[in-house]
Amino acid sequence: MLKAVILIGGPQKGTRFRPLSFEVPKPLFPVAGVPMIQHHIEACAQVPGMQEILLIGFYQPDEPLTQFLETAQQEFNLPVRYLQEFAPLGTGGGLYHFRDQILAGGPEAFFVLNADVCSDFPLNAMLDAHRRQRHPFLLLGTTANRTQSLNYGCIVENPQTHEVLHYVEKPSTFISDIINCGIYLFSPEALKPLRDVFQRNQQDRQLCLALGEDSPGLWPGAGTIRLEQDVFSALAGQGQIYVYLTDGIWSQIKSAGSALYASRLYLGRYEFTHPERLAKHTPGGPQIRGNVYIHPTAKVAPSAVVASVPGGDWTWGSSKSLQGLWSMFLPTAGPQRLHWEGGDSGRGCASPGEHCPPRSHVTGAHVCSAQHRGLGEHRGALGPRGGYRQ
C-alpha cells in the first residue's frame, strides 16, 4: 500500500506569480489547461497500490480548493484530502506534523511531491528502484549546466551505487550538475530524522529562552523543518539517501514565464497521454496549428488560425514575464492578438482585464499552445537526452 503527499505551500509564497496568483491560488493555476497540481494527482493515481493522496499546506480551505478536491476524488476514485498547517512549517515540517495521518494504514512507502514542479513524474520507475534496494530516502534527480545548477539543490552521487554523498541547497559555487527535482519516495523510517530535527529545534529554543536571547520575530519554531538543509545535507554520505536520475521532462514553476514553459512540456506529452485535451481541426471551425488546448467555454471565430505567440514577440502591458502567455490568432485578414471579453477569469492562463488589444477572435477562457518558449528556465529539451544513468 502506498500514499502520496503533495506540498502546496501557502499564500505567503509564490510572490513571483503575482498578479496572477491574486485571481487563483498558485496550486490551482492552470498549466496546459488543468490546475497545476492535477498533473501530480494524475501521476500518483496511476501508481498501482496508491491508497490516498494528501495535500499539505497553509492555504485556507476556500471554495475553489474544496471544489477541486471533491472533483479530483470523483475523477480518480481515490481519497484526496487537504491537511492545513497551523503555520508555515517548511518543506519537512508538515510531513512530521501530520505523520500519523501519513502512516495510517501502514503504507510501504509514500511519495512526496512539490506542487511547483512540472514533470512526467516517473513514479513507477522510482518505486521499482526503491523495491530493488530499500533506503529511507530516494530523490529524483536530473542534470543542468554549471551555471543553472546554482539555482537548485545540488547532488553529488556515487556513480556505482547512486548514494547521495553530498547535498548543498543552492550553492554559491559549482558542486555538481545533478540537481534535485523536488520529487521523492520516502520509507516510513524517513520520518525519524525529521523527529530528530524537531527535537533539536525544541532544545535550541529552550536554550535561547534560558539565555534570554529569544526573539519571536527571528525564531521559526520547532515545527519548521527544511528537508533540503536540515535532512538531506545532514544525512548525505551516511547510506540513507539515494538518487534516481531521469532523462524525462522537468521544470520548476516559479513564475508566469516558467508556467509557459511547463505548458509547452505538458502539451507536447498530451499527444500520448491525453490526446482528447488537444484541440482538433473541424470543418467550418478555426485552423489548429500544433498542440493547442482550448477551454470549452472559449469561443473562437471560425476564420481564426490558432497558433503560438513566439516568446518575446508580443508583450502584455509592462510585464515581461507575461510574454507569450496567450496564443496568437491569425485570421485571414492578418495577425490579431487575443482579447478577453468576460468569461470565467479564474480559468484563464492569467488574470484578464488589463491591456487588452482592441479586437478579439476569442472570448471567455484561455487557450494554450505547445510552442511557447520557456522564459528563464534551465530545461531546453522536450524529451529524453542521452547519458543519463538509470
Protein described:
There is one protein chain. This protein has 390 residues and is an alpha/beta fold. The protein has 9 helices and 20 strands. It starts with a strand and ends in a 21-residue tail after the last strand. The chain has helices at 20-23, 36-45, 63-76, 90-97, 99-103, 123-132, 191-211, 227-235, 256-273; strands spanning 2-9, 30-31, 34-35, 50-57, 80-84, 109-114, 117-119, 137-143, 153-157, 164-169, 178-186, 241-245, 250-252, 287-288, 292-294, 299-300, 305-307, 328-329, 362-363, 367-369. It has 2 domains: 2-252, Spore Coat Polysaccharide Biosynthesis Protein SpsA, Chain A (Alpha-Beta Complex), CATH 3.90.550.10; 273-369, no CATH class. Helix content is 25%, strand content 22%. Strands 1, 4, 5, 6, 8, 9, 10, 11 and 12 form a 9-stranded mixed beta sheet that branches. A 3-stranded mixed beta sheet has the order 14-17-18, with no helix packed on it. It has a two-stranded antiparallel ribbon with strand order 2-3.
What fraction of residues sit in β-strands? 15-25%
Q: What order do the SSEs take from the amino end to the carboxyl end, as H and E?
A: EHEEHEHEHHEEHEEEEHHEEHEEEEEEE
- Domain module count: 2
- Using the coordinates shown, work out and report the CATH topology of the largest domain: Spore Coat Polysaccharide Biosynthesis Protein SpsA, Chain A
The first-to-last residue Cα distance is 24 Å
Percentage of residues assigned to helices: 25-40%
Strands, count: 20
The total count of helices amounts to: 9
Structural class determined from secondary elements: alpha/beta
Shape descriptor reads: globular
